[in-house]
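Limitations

Structures in this collection are predictions, not experimental determinations, and the ligand pose is part of the prediction. Treat each record accordingly. The example that follows, with flavin mononucleotide as the small molecule, is included so readers can see exactly what is and is not provided: the inputs are given verbatim, and the output is the predicted complex.
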Amino acid sequence: MPLVCLTDFQAYAREHLSKSTWDFIEGGVDDCCTRDENTAAFKKIRLRPRYLKDVSKVDMRTTIQGAEISAPICIAPTAFHRLTWPDGEMTTARAAQAASICYITSTYASCSLEDIVAAAPGGLRWFQLYVHPNRQINKQLIQKVESLGFKALVITVDVPKIGNRRHDITNQVNLMQNLWLKDLGSLETSMTRLPIILKGILTKEDAELAVKHNVHGIIVSNHGGRQLDEVPASIDALTEVVAAVKGKVEVYLDGGIRTGNDVVKALALGAKCVFVGRPILWGLACKGEHGVTKVLDILKNEFHTSMTLTGNINASPFQLSRLIGKGGGSGLRHQGPGLSIWGQCL
Ligand SMILES: Cc1cc2nc3c(=O)[nH]c(=O)nc-3n(C[C@H](O)[C@H](O)[C@H](O)COP(=O)(O)O)c2cc1C
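Predicted complex:
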């Protein structure tokens, strides 16, 4: 059977991975409400297509932190890629480089950073950091990623403690026992010259604090529903964060992106780019680099179709507050010059 959409890759991975690896990848916390809501919330948003436009030339390119990418679809940090494919993160880095998109490498990469960089020296990569209580360790790691050519530091803020992942407890998987980050205070911007992106912001209060402390970007994320259950779906938290930052920093989103329509919706609600977590691991589990490339190609092609059919020829005018209008009657949720969204989940 050909694999034609991301959920086909999910089914393939489920069949071919060991139960404990599958559970580790797929699992959420507690009752998995937020994990499931991440995908379900996208489906409650309706698109308003505009057909009376010239859509013969669609340009998916955009920039993040000043770097050009081929489409606003990049790879979220996920741990331990060797669980799904022997060459692990080296393979992921190659596929990201070939696709001309950004790959955020996890603190918990299962290949060395040197090997990952050597596998794809020309790729755009950011590094995801769990802040360690020992300032010196942070400093050494940051210096290393700077010298290896990583272009931004993504600090994950939603893991002061690991959430209650029932499958991992049942399977006695304790891979990430020591995820620190009790204290963000020790990380000062002066420790690095790289742009700092905070990952895991869901509220206007935290978004305002982040802007006040001069971060360069925010990833609206609930960790794929793997940290605190019963928080809003990422797409439902996006509008609040975008409004709070008032265009001062770039806002990105991860969580539940499975189709090109999902990407369009996230961009229309103010995200500059989206990041994809689990589907990359499904791709890895299915033929390594070829699988990841296929996952990215499918998502990009779907996004191209969604842009064309909604009447948007350019990925950049989707940006930020320009596209966010006032919610109104008749189910109209958001409207902007480039794209409008009909919503049923006011
Ligand atoms: C198996 C797995 C491992 C993850 N590891 C990390 C990690 O090391 N660091 C991090 O910041 N986020 C991690 N995440 C969260 C992802 O970066 C991202 O927020 C989430 O997967 C996005 O949701 P999606 O899987 O629905 O695309 C992980 C997620 C999964 C599924």
